[in-house]
Amino acid sequence: MEADMRWWNFLFSGTQPKADFVTAYEEKNQEKTPGNRPISQLNFVVLDTETTGLNSEKDDLVSFGAVLIRNEKILVNSSREYFFTTNILNRESIKIHEIIEPKNPVSDEFFAEEFLKYIDKHIIVGHHIGFDLKVIERKLAPFGFKNFKNPILDTQYLATRLEKGYHYDLRTGKPGEYSLDSLCERHEVPIDDRHTAAGDAFLTAQLLLKLLKKAEKIGVKDFKSLMR
Prior knowledge:
Helix content is 41%, strand content 16%. It is an alpha/beta fold and 228 residues long. The chain has a 5-stranded mixed beta sheet, with helices on both faces. α6 packs parallel to α8.
């Protein structure tokens, strides 16, 4: 009956019916993280995507990679990597990710359900994460998903905040100063498996741990101060 009502609402309101796994995700994220929870007790999901281009409104997912951090440790066995089929071909992006015919591509519904279970209530982390999340939102939209309920942390923002302060404008600095490559080099994170979603997620996870250690040294020690 509930499923029938979702389709009835879709037909007469124009909105997408909400899948059960989207509802479950939203309900789980109604409980907010206490502001005084120490960084050492926070859970993070670090993710990255490879796409058909740089337009978050039009381009599509080619691959997705992610890994969890718990107790300030990267859980290597928790890593995920998914590939997708797409009708959008872009020679310039293919030169970067080198994916033409993905092996074992997953369906959008499979990805949507598994992805929402995976991110749970964790803090979502990525480098220039806004782009990735916009593309993923579009992938999940057919299942009634509208926006992320998780806390979101951008390693680019965190790095600039720690080095330059809250109000630093990236446009006034050196080009590429806060790129993933530049930050990994500055923080002695070995650059390997670059420009794969899983590889970049792992690099970003290593960078995050370095940044969190730096943050704790200057008094950023809990969820509230980290997400400020």
